[in-house]
TrEMBL record:
Record's keyword annotation contains Disulfide bond: no
Gene symbol of the encoding locus: aroB
Signal sequence residues: none
Name of the protein in question: 3-dehydroquinate synthase
Protein source organism: Neobacillus kokaensis
EC number: 4.2.3.4
Chain sites annotated for binding Zn(2+): E182, H245, H262
Length: 355
């Protein structure tokens, strides 16, 4: 399956399928005739599992591999610096290309290396997590600063995305859950048909068929693309992608990154936002059915009990997406119809207590 992505700055394809990464060499040969060298940026876990499936076809471009630590540790200044050193020491030039083999962390790192090395060289995303259906589309690339996540980055689009479903077969349950929460988010904010399909067809995340996985990723990517293609630099509707993230980010931060995966925290945030939507924006929704469904899929649906509501609120207020005094939430009027609402602190605290 191929999804065409059209942004203001670039047009490219997302190829989704089992074994699709085997087409990369042919893509390079026909699109980059003067290609001097490729740098593969990956992480320790993914290198061990999947590098051997990618490397053989690339030999004519003399590939160099830079292996970052797994997870969020890939997005530090030190790792960024090392990746650039690797590129320079191995004489990559402006006609070279970067392949990002890994999840969202590797994609963000490799994309930022590509955006900044010699003022920008082409890169290709080869996502290996479900969450990366989100991060690989939209052109945001970044590393972290000790003072904030994703604070140093760029808007930079890949030449293509090769989403090989074979690579997803090794994902641990927690990572599947994390990524699938964003799939569910994409359905809720834009596509009620897709949402109805999900709730009636997906009942075990550890036993997804390749068809279910492929359909879920393709739909999720299409929704993400809908919001970012019209709003590449995040001025308006792109904000709707933040559904569930206001409280989600606060829970993630308060729990300490690494305890809850991003998607697991966002799921709790979505349930909270759905509840607010019922009360404030006229959403008519079977929240009980939803909650039962996601619990069966393995998600937590309540705020971890030791977290303080006051601290969660102050984290929400620090969120760079809140404006002025009150916190801005994405709510739904209907499944598929998001709106932005500023909500007073007292109402938030009240709702957190009742939640
Ligand atoms: P990740 O890249 O850290 O991957 C999660 C874990 O799974 C890592 O430990 C990784 O080594 C492992 N892993 C990856 N692929 C695997 C596989 N096939 N089999 C077994 N293990 C595998 O994280 P993620 O959840 O994919 O993405 C989260 C990152 O994405 C965050 O840094 C977040 O900021 C970023 N993000 C970016 C955007 C964007 O628009 N750029 C959007 C959402 C999230
Ligand atoms: Zn997210």
């Amino acid at each position: 399956e191929t999804i065409h992505i059209q942004t203001v700055s670039k047009k490219y394809n997302v190829f989704v399928g089992e074994g699709i990464s085997q087409d990369i060499a042919a893509f390079l040969a026909s699109n980059f005739r003067k290609l001097t060298r490729v740098l593969i940026i990956t992480d320790e876990t993914v290198a061990e599992l999947h590098l051997k499936h990618l490397l053989p076809q690339l030999s004519e471009w003399n590939p160099v591999v830079y292996t970052a630590p797994s997870g969020e540790k890939a997005k530090t200044f030190e790792v960024y610096y090392q990746a650039l050193s690797e590129a320079l020491e191995n004489h990559l030039d402006r006609k070279s290309l970067i392949l990002a083999l890994g999840g969202g962390a590797v994609g963000d790192l490799a994309g930022f290396v590509a955006a900044s090395f010699m003022r920008g060289i082409p890169f290709i995303q080869i996502p290996t997590t479900i969450l990366a259906h989100d991060s690989a589309v939209g052109g945001k690339v970044a590393i972290n600063h000790p003072l904030g996540k994703n604070m140093i980055g760029a808007f930079y689009q890949p030449e293509a995305v090769f989403y090989d479903l074979d690579f997803l077969k090794s994902l641990p349950a927690k990572e599947i859950r994390s990524g699938f929460a964003e799939v569910i988010k994409h359905a809720l904010i834009h596509d009620s048909t897709f949402y109805n399909w999900l709730i009636s067809n997906i009942n075990d995340l550890n036993d997804l068929t390749m068809n279910q996985l492929s359909y879920s990723l393709v739909k999720g990517i299409q929704v993400k693309n809908h919001f970012v293609s019209q709003d590449e630099k995040e001025m308006g509707i792109r904000a709707y992608l933040n559904f569930g993230h206001t409280l989600g980010h606060a829970i993630e931060a308060e729990m300490g990154y690494g305890n809850y995966t991003h998607g697991e925290a966002v799921m709790i945030g979505m349930i909270f936002a759905l509840k607010l939507s019922e009360e404030l924006s006229g959403l008519s929704f079977n929240l009980e059915k939803f909650t039962t469904w996601v619990e069966k899929l393995g998600y937590q649906t309540k705020i971890p009990h030791h977290l303080s509501y006051d601290k969660l609120l102050s984290k929400m207020k620090q969120d760079k997406k809140s404006v002025g005094e009150s916190v801005r939430f994405v709510l739904l009027e209907e499944v598929g119809r998001p709106i932005l609402r500023e909500i007073d602190d007292s109402l938030i605290l009240d709702s957190l207590q009742k939640f």
